[in-house]
Design goal:
about 230 residues; Arc Repressor Mutant, subunit A; mainly alpha; Tetracycline Repressor, domain 2
């Protein structure tokens, strides 16, 4: 039985509809389908209530997704504040990926809109202090902070999309793993050999996304380090 009235839910033995329970259900749907792929009708079904009840307690779908993003952000662990700036960021972005990949679509939201000040404030405060302590001026520290978070989130978003398009990804990857017949394309031949070796070895291919993410983070941090050396020289 579905209903939005407290009396009818009590009679049917259903738990009360609360904002907390709505966000809990939305979080589960996000883990299963992605932040942009579940509907209010699905959410209403998950809590056994009418969509109007959801609007009453939380708001529209976008408001609910924002609450889900805040809930996910609260899950990752911040590294110790006393770490050297690069070690702090390396650990932080790794922790970020571990949590965000459980909830597809959240990374894209963060890359586009950032977190809310209520939930993201402590993270941004700690992140900025590592950069200021390292030697960046205020404005550039803010730019570096945004760069590192957005690049990490964009890579995670790419991973989200590629996981959902697994069949197409396999077909495309297999094509790139085929040897080229043109002797003048030596660079392409080298790439094809690398792809073929990875596809032929399940163990080597098991955590390709994680390996690519780590490589990307390290190279971006390399660039930031070069800039830091210049501004502190």
């Amino acid at each position: 039985m579905r209903g939005g009235r407290t009396r009818s839910r009590d009679t049917a033995g259903l738990p009360a509809v609360t904002p907390e329970r709505i966000i809990d259900a939305a979080l589960e749907l996000t883990a299963r389908y992605g932040a942009e792929s579940w509907t209010l009708r699905q959410l209403a079904g998950a809590i056994d209530a009418y969509p109007a009840v959801i609007y009453h307690h939380v708001g529209d779908r976008d408001t609910i997704v924002m609450a889900v993003v805040d809930r996910v952000i609260a899950m990752y662990e911040l590294p110790p504040a006393e770490l050297e700036w690069r070690a702090w960021w390396r650990q932080f972005l790794t922790n970020l990926r571990v949590v965000f990949t459980r909830y597809p679509g959240v990374a894209r939201r963060v890359a586009l809109n950032g977190p809310s000040i209520e939930t993201g404030g402590p993270t941004v405060d700690c992140a900025m202090r590592t950069l200021l302590r390292a030697g960046f001026e205020q404005d550039e520290a803010a730019m570096v902070c945004r760069l590192l978070v957005s690049q990490a989130c964009l890579f995670i978003s790419l991973e989200d999309d590629q996981r959902t398009a697994n069949k197409a990804k396999t077909q495309i990857s297999s094509g790139w793993g085929e040897p080229t017949a043109d002797p003048d394309l030596s660079g392409l031949a080298t790439l094809s050999e690398s792809v073929h070796e990875r596809l032929a070895d399940p163990e080597k291919n098991r955590d390709y996304f994680g390996e690519l993410f780590d490589y990307a983070v390290d190279r971006v941090l390399d660039g930031v380090q070069v800039r830091l050396d210049k501004v502190t020289r």
